[in-house]
Amino acid sequence: MNTPLIVAPQWVADRLEDPEIIIIDCRFALNDPHLGRQQYLASHLPGAYYLDLNRDMSSPVQQHGGRHPLPDMGELARKLEGLGIKFNQTQVVVYDDSRMAFAARLWWLFRHLGHDRVSLLDGGFSAWQTAGYPVSEEVPEPRLGGSFTPQVQADAVVDIEAVKARKDLPGVVLIDSRERDRYLGEREPIDPVAGHIPGAINYPWQEVTDDRGFVKSQEAQRQRWQDIEADRELIVYCGSGVTACVNLLSLELAGIQGSKLYAGSWSDWCSYA
């Protein structure tokens, strides 16, 4: 069974009672880390669980490694198993309300763990509400029968040493996913140093979706990357390894395989400045 990468609200609504599908809400706000869970408790898709960017999808911040270091993969796998997810059997649907910023991070983490059966809700929670589908305040009990033994795709992620060693090689393209003014160093609202990694080119992550949070067409994704030659090694980063995953999603939709995430991203790079 093929797993669609992007699913419409109706697709999810038609499958709310399907025991083989698990829905995960990962709404979050970088400027208010408690808001996402509060939103979830107030209203979410029926049966949806909640995973938090800071607590579940990241590990504690250190001196280096960026603002959202990758979580311990064994610990994350245990959490997913605890929700009743069966490795590469359960169909997972993830959503946020931030143009895929956090849903794409969770999608990428699933893929990094080797679990490919993950779809993203097009338009997020707002699209679900606008379509008039039901919502719930009930926090579901974890399902029994989870079994999640990951097969970590280690080559999907790189660290700062790999970026330094590879970024100037022929055939390697370094992609900065942040807003244009942050890439240019004209504005830096979060990290202590402005600018970008030398040699990086800019593909702002917001271009993947429209203003309402719907993913642009597959053809639009292909056109977006058309200036990059085939068979390049792509290393993608952002501020902290979160919104870069939206570009990785775009590359997947465009049919470009094998792109890598620099997980520490700019916040790791500039910590050595």
Automatic annotation (TrEMBL):
<feature type="domain" description="Rhodanese">
    <location>
        <begin position="168"/>
        <end position="271"/>
    </location>
</feature>
<keyword id="KW-0677">Repeat</keyword>
<dbReference type="InterPro" id="IPR001307">
    <property type="entry name" value="Thiosulphate_STrfase_CS"/>
</dbReference>
<feature type="domain" description="Rhodanese">
    <location>
        <begin position="17"/>
        <end position="137"/>
    </location>
</feature>
<dbReference type="InterPro" id="IPR036873">
    <property type="entry name" value="Rhodanese-like_dom_sf"/>
</dbReference>
<dbReference type="GO" id="GO:0004792">
    <property type="term" value="F:thiosulfate-cyanide sulfurtransferase activity"/>
</dbReference>
<protein>
    <submittedName>
        <fullName>3-mercaptopyruvate sulfurtransferase</fullName>
    </submittedName>
</protein>
<keyword id="KW-0808">Transferase</keyword>
<dbReference type="Pfam" id="PF00581">
    <property type="entry name" value="Rhodanese"/>
</dbReference>
<dbReference type="InterPro" id="IPR045078">
    <property type="entry name" value="TST/MPST-like"/>
</dbReference>
<dbReference type="InterPro" id="IPR001763">
    <property type="entry name" value="Rhodanese-like_dom"/>
</dbReference>
<keyword id="KW-0670">Pyruvate</keyword>
